[in-house]
């Protein structure tokens, strides 16, 4: 499997592969400042600690090198404001990649998540055999659903979560993505 670029530049927004050592302090700070904002949607935030964040970065480095999971820092105007990810679910079909994202509350409502997810969609369809891209989120997380809808994803169904809850799953086919690209030129 080819790897996506380690840096994607979108004017004032940069998606870049995490640097395990250099990014630890800043990622820890961004998560710490975002805990209450993320808590309803991201169960892992309750385990947040410096050691947990260091282990997260180590796993991301290994997963990238293995071609399984591509997690990037979201950097706006030179400041890390969140993370985004392109990955294949271990229990998922081979022709589907999923996108995930979260932002510091100060970066929300400005199109940052939409721009980041759009860039990841473009990368996802460069992988051979990928016919669908999905975004899943808690049904109450309307902001994540709005990102998916803006990018042309359609509601596909629901999926049980590891914590016993349910996620809303949005899907975009390669054909839909091509049509949206043609329309937006």
Automatic annotation (TrEMBL):
PROSITE patterns noted in UniProt: GNAT
Keyword field: Acyltransferase, Transferase
Top enzyme class: transferase
EC assignment: 2.3.-.-
Domain of life: Bacteria
Sample GO molecular function, one term: acyltransferase activity
Domain N-acetyltransferase: 13-175
Protein name per UniProt: GNAT family N-acetyltransferase
Taxonomic lineage from the root: Bacteria, Bacillati, Actinomycetota, Actinomycetes, Kitasatosporales
